[in-house]
Amino acid sequence: MSLLSVRNLTTEFRVGGQWLAAVSNVSFDLQPGEILGLVGESGCGKSTTAYSLMELLPSNARVANGEVWLRDTQLLGMGESRWRDIRGTQLAMIFQDPMTALDPVFTVGDQVMETLREHLGLSHKDARARTLALFRQVGIPAPEQRFNAYPHQFSGGMSQRIALAIAISCHPHVLIADEPTTALDVTIQAQILRLIRRLLVEGQGTGVLLITHDLGVVAQVCDRVAVMYAGEIVEIGDVQSIFSDPRHPYTQALLNSLPSRQVEPGQLANIQGYVPGLASRPSGCRFNPRCAHAKPICSKQPPPRIQLSPEREVACVLYNE
Amino acid sequence: MRLLRYIAQRLLLLLPVLFGTSILIFLLLRLIPGDPATVILGLRATPERLEIVRDELGLDLPIHLQYIQWLGNILQGDLGQDYRSNVPVTTLLQTRIPVTIQLTLFALILAIVIAVPLGIRAAVYPNGAADRGAMFLGLFGISIPDFWLGIMLILAFALGLRWFPSSGYVPLSESVIGNLRSFFLPALTLAVGLAAVLVRVTRSAVLEVLDRDFVRFLRAKGLREQLVIYKHVLRNASIQIVTVIGLQFGYLLGGAVIVEEVFSLPGVGRLIVNATLERNYPVVQAGMLVVAFLFIVVNLITDVLYGLLNPNIREGQS
Amino acid sequence: MTTVAKTTPNSQRRSYPSVQSLRAWFAASPSAFVGGTLIILLLIIAFSAPLFAPYTPEEMDFAAALTGPSPTHWLGTDNFGRDVLTRVVFGYRISMAVALGSVGVGLIVGVTLGLLAGYFGGIIDNLIMRPMDVLMAFPAIVLVVALTGFVGRNLSIMILAIGIVYVPIFARVMRGATLEIVGQLYVEGARARGASPLRLMLIHVLPNAIAPVLIQASALMGIAILLESGLSFIGLGTQPPDPSLGLMLSEGRQFMTDAPWMVIVPGVAISIAVLGFNLLGNGLQDTLNPSRKGQ
């Protein structure tokens, strides 16, 4: 049984008077001790997928269809009171901008302690001791002094370490990391990623869903990768084989843009055009207007999902034989 | 340390305002055409008494020296004489200031108790009953004259239902219950206008905080919604709410002038009104001085609270 | 035939846009529409009071004193047998005169001072704005009580006193708006092209700062009505026998158990007028200043 299993997830946003799908029919599995990268250009639905898994969508969005299984529990629609026993303890999350993720008016120590006391019912003294231990684990220098500091007194990297300390404090089974290093500079990026691997994946067997637009990050830490385009997963498989032999034209284009290392989140150097908006998604294969190998059929019907090997799946008509 | 420096900075900024305020109050009496001594004592005053008053006010001196003398007296705690009753004005004020302070504080508490929970609910459940209620209070609360509201409350709850006295003042030392009963309707009257402003500010401040990233992170870490709202969101929104409360305190002091009149409460506001009606100018000046001083002190307290609530100012960058 | 056929749709077309623009106004901001309509109605009633009022405000009928609402006196009579409806209609005259007059004074003086302070900055800014801080150190009603108390009690002094209280408010709004626009002007380099300061202020700065000033003006007209009636209520404003709404309220207090309409009617009348200005102000806020919507 997978640790986390997502089936046919469809999430919609209300735009004007109608509901438009931002995420369509997304399915994937996550195993214990595995890092799965979810990669794609901005606007492709990666973050919406993450918030759907936690049922933390903004008020103008809803999960229209799908199931999310955490081992043998179906999470979606389980109600706020049951969610509280899952969020933070079994399913934890960290965000893109660590500088705004912490409450500015409480000390960082308080914000870690609060989580411990809420979920584990620790006494003030025990919670404080655990917090200091967590600070050491995530590499906060001089934890006793920093305990009473406020978020604005921390750098981005240090703030992300605090957020990580909160996320791992209750030994989650799954960590969802939404672009956790995008706002940080490169050396700090590598430190945070190493920390995630060492503390969670190797230390506790946590499964990590790492959302990123940066293929460098994927190559660095992920075991498997799912490539998203316009709300759909177009290709999924282990990192090594996808990087050495990408099959979907979009994956190929993504990887072609990699050596230049100047990938802007909005646009890829080697692909014409932009990710289509919610209201203007093409019919058939959503990539067909930008695809170099597009055939007439691509604009008429959705591409088939093709199992290339037990590990790999691709959604493209090119491999339909 | 940083907080102390911040407070010192605020104090320094207040000095010119205090100085200007004193000049304005001093000049008011000199604005009246004619001899100030005659203005104060009236036309039927004897020449001897006029001479005494002229001497006390230093009217023979040039005007800037008159001001310095007047200010010197005030700084020594001498606010002048009530020439009608020959009582020092400070004696008059001693019993009046606590009444006004109690009234305004009571009103402040009522306004907060009414507006803040309503504003929070309005923000958390947009378009719900609380949101409609907040909109109603926010609009009608500032449109209804306070003196009329006071009369209506008297008509309903004092003369009609007889739950509260219609006027008068029971000192706290005499009876705590009686004192609270005598203050309830006036305080409620005064509170409605402030509550109207406060409910809008609370609603928009909470809405703004709810939109911030850290709220999403708090929810992602599985915190109870009550803790998210009442610990984190409210604490962040309070920075803005407290600032507005401070700014609006002047409104309460102003409202007290009229509400004290409606409910016959012997406060500073009523003293100013009665003294103005009797053209008892030194008393008016002293009353204005007290009101301006209270107003400035409250603004200072607000600034300090703002600093205390805001770790950016309290702690500084490290 | 043809001419008739041509003119009819033409004239319809001519009247159509005005109905449509009214409708558009309502759709854009129902609150501004309701408030604006209310204010216009009240202004018409106030300034053509003799046409509307069934009696004259001083007309006494002792036989009918303290009678409740009836077909002859729709809103009842007071202790002198004067018609309450008539006195309310005439009371609106004073309310509206004070509202327009005081905001007029405050706006003209305040906008001028704020414009100068914001445009020139430096010493001129300080010379203008520091005294404004002093005026702001008093609650409005206290300053108005003192000014009218020391100088005299009549309509024009009351208008002037409230106007003085409003000067710093307009000055601050205008100064802020000016600073913002002057900052942009430097980028445009209009100054470098040698335009005179006066020209710059009148042509570039003033029109662009009108929105915040109008929003403020609407709210302050409502407050002026509250101040006038409050002042008259405590005996420092309009003097008897003039029919101020606040004065009617204070006169009615003695009779409020026997003739509650004497206190209810003027209070409702004041509230309606203030509500109108507040609705208009809210609506202007939403339409002219959409970035701050809902605040």
What would the keywords be for this entry?
heterotrimer; A: 321 residues; alpha/beta; eight-stranded mixed β-sheet; four-stranded antiparallel β-sheet; 11 helices; 12 strands; 24% strand; B: 318 residues; mainly alpha; two-stranded antiparallel ribbon; 13 helices; 2 strands; globular
Structure summarized in a few sentences:
The complex is a heterotrimer of chains A (321), B (318) and C (295). Chain A has 321 residues and is of the alpha/beta class.
What does this structure look like?
The complex is a heterotrimer of chains A (321), B (318) and C (295). The radius of gyration of chain A is 20 Å and the shape is globular. Chain A has 321 residues and is an alpha/beta fold. Helices cover 31% and strands 24% of the residues of chain A. Chain A starts with a strand and ends in a 6-residue tail after the last strand. In chain A, the strands form two sheets. In chain A, strands 6-7-8-3-9-10-12-11 form an eight-stranded mixed beta sheet, sandwiched between helices. In chain A, strand 4 (61-70) and strand 5 form a beta hairpin. Chain A has helices at residues 46-54, 80-83, 98-101, 108-120, 124-137, 143-146, 156-168, 186-204, 215-221, 239-244, 249-256; strands at residues 4-15, 18-30, 35-39, 61-70, 73-74, 91-94, 174-178, 207-212, 224-229, 232-238, 305-307, 313-315. With 318 residues, chain B is mainly α. In chain B, 78% of the residues lie in helices and 1% in strands. Chain B has a two-stranded antiparallel sheet. The radius of gyration of chain B is 24 Å and the shape is globular. Chain C has 295 residues and is mainly α. Residues 1-15 and 291-295 of chain C have low confidence and may be disordered. The chains are: A alpha/beta (321), B mainly alpha (318), C mainly alpha (295). The A-B interface holds A 54, 56, 80, 83-89, 92-95, 97, 100-106, 114-115, 118-119, 149-150, 152-153, 163, 166-167 and B 212-214, 216-225, 227, 232, 235-236, 239, 309-312, 315, 317-318.
